[in-house]
Design a protein that fits this description.
Elements: E1 3-7, E2 10-13, E3 16-19, E4 21-25, E5 28-33, E6 43-46, E7 51-54, E8 56-61, E9 66-67, E10 70-71, H1 76-85, E11 88-96, H2 103-114, E12 121-127, H3 133-146, E13 150-154, H4 165-178, E14 181-185, H5 189-201, H6 208-212, H7 216-232, E15 238-240, H8 246-257, E16 262-266, H9 268-272, H10 275-279, H11 302-312, E17 317-318, H12 351-360, H13 366-380, E18 398-408, E19 427-437, E20 440-444, E21 447-448
The protein binds dihydropyrimidine-2,4(1H,3H)-dione and zinc ion (2 copies).
The site of one zinc ion has 4 residues, from loops.
């Protein structure tokens, strides 16, 4: 086996920063030791003056997702390469069962897209596009045989991914039995469809109306309903995805205060971007920021509340909901009708940096930064302690992060397959310096050395938070 030593850095773990050298043998971490106590290794990475953190775990991506008559523009190859550039060494993507399709066929199609293509390790959640007797049986089989222990349901998108309350309850009851996590897209889709039709009838066709017709109240209502349905299903574990609104956060916080098995994630776009400044950009420009849940108004308290929720652990995880579409030919499908703009923002490359900016701004501690981007998603989705921590026995997924570096986000320099950036021009204090995945250096001195096929499929266990 070849050894690798990451020396001189400050290792950030759940119990705080410690000065330690990290020794890797093959694909695993074998020890953390006093600085300078190990002097030889086949490869030495100098982390002096830098943070040494576990590789990022992005628990919410959509490579090649079919949506609105097109496909998300990152393949597993381009998307995982961009993830590696940004310090994310594990993604959990969503395999899709379309309505009318067998769950196992949807899953097989996802494996076929990803197999041999990935630069970093990957796992799958399963989207259930139709909850029926077969799908319920498939849930058991995926948990037992496939290492897929979480299922996403949609309260939005009637006619596409939507499940009604009865279907949701049945899937939750099944999850309570087999130990899986239910992930919920919590927006009231039928009510949104009414608002969308009314807006279009009034001639309101610009991208900003995507946000106006998906009001925060319909996210809070659906979040509350999901929490009640999970209670009826004997407190089945529930994870609210891409939470963007203060009202929804309040419902999650209430449930957590009551000791319920309720968790939530937010995404960088909801922490930094707003309905007025981005979605409301002049003309059709705002289409770049059409995603669901939508960006929220800066005149309300959403962004501030989300940062607080991250500090208090009412929000446990930051994922990207990476779902990129090019402006040309893809977002443009919705010129003259905002409801035809494919929903999604690409950001898999920038999550680690954008959340480090939260540390610089005094919103998060260093430990909380690492928890929300790596440790907690690994625990939440059955990948811990293999992923999400720098500890003996864990995979050697390690990022050396330079707090004195600077990152400027731009379409000119990013590696995602999209013709614009949702964070164009953002300057961040901090920079991904070196990226190691299972003992292999992917990025060093600004030079990318990774390759497609290095990334392996990860079978996941049950959530560490399961009670
Ligand atoms: N939201 C998005 O913005 N894109 C894909 C699916 C979703 O729920
Ligand atoms: Zn969603
Ligand atoms: Zn999503």
């Amino acid at each position: 086996m070849t050894t690798l030593l990451v020396k001189g850095g400050k290792v950030i773990g759940p119990s705080g920063p410690i000065d330690a050298d990290v020794l890797v043998d093959g694909e695993r971490i074998v020890s953390l030791s006093l600085p300078g106590s190990i002097t030889t290794a086949d490869t030495v990475v100098d982390a002096t003056g830098k943070y040494v953190i576990p590789g990022g775990v992005d628990a919410h991506t959509h490579m090649e997702l079919p949506f609105g008559g097109t496909f998300a523009s990152d393949t597993f190859e381009t998307g995982t390469r961009a993830a590696a550039w940004g310090g994310t060494t594990t993604i959990i993507d969503f395999a899709v069962q379309r309505t009318g399709e067998r769950v196992q066929d949807g899953l097989a199609a996802w494996h076929a897209k990803a197999d041999g293509q990935c630069h970093v390790d990957y796992a799958f959640h399963q989207i259930l596009g139709g909850v029926d007797e077969d799908a319920l049986k498939a849930m058991d089989q995926l948990v037992t045989d496939e290492g897929i222990t979480s299922f996403k349901l949609f309260m939005a998108y009637p006619g596409v991914f939507y499940s009604d309350d009865g279907q949701i309850l049945r899937a939750m009851q099944r999850a309570r039995e087999n130990g899986a996590m239910i992930m919920m897209h919590a927006e009231n889709g039928p009510a949104i469809d009414v608002l969308v039709a009314q807006a279009l009838a009034r001639g309101e066709t610009d991208p900003v109306h995507h946000g106006i017709t998906r009001p925060a109240a319909l996210e809070a209502e659906a979040t509350s309903r999901a929490i009640y349905l999970a209670e009826v299903a004997k407190d089945t574990p529930l994870y609210i995805v891409h939470l963007s609104a203060s009202g929804a956060l309040a419902r999650v916080a209430e449930a957590r205060d009551a000791g319920r098995n309720v968790f939530a994630e937010t995404c960088p776009q909801y922490l930094y971007l707003t309905l007025e400044d981005q979605l409301g950009a002049p003309g059709f420009e705002g289409a770049k920021w059409v995603c669901s849940t939508p960006l929220r108004s800066k005149h309300e308290s959403h962004g501030r509340d989300l940062w607080r929720g991250l500090r208090t652990n009412d929000l446990s995880v930051v994922s990207t909901d990476h779902c990129p579409f090019c402006f040309k030919d893809q977002k443009e499908l919705g010129v003259g009708d905002f409801s035809k703009i494919p929903n999604g923002i690409g950001g898999v490359e920038h999550r680690v940096d954008l959340l480090y900016q939260g540390v610089v701004d005094g919103q998060l501690s260093l430990e909380r930064w690492v928890e929300t981007i790596a440790t907690t998603p690994a625990r939440m989705f059955g990948l811990y302690p293999r992923k999400g921590v720098i500890a003996p026995g864990s995979d050697a997924d390690i990022v050396v992060y330079d707090p004195d570096g600077r990152t400027r986000i731009s379409v000119e320099t990013h590696h995602m397959n999209m013709d614009h950036s949702a964070f164009e021009g953002y300057e961040i204090a901090g920079k991904v310096d070196t990226v190691i995945s299972r003992g292999t250096v992917l990025l060093e001195d600004g030079v990318y050395r990774g390759r497609k096929g290095h990334g392996q499929y990860l079978r996941r266990g049950l959530s560490s938070y399961l009670t």
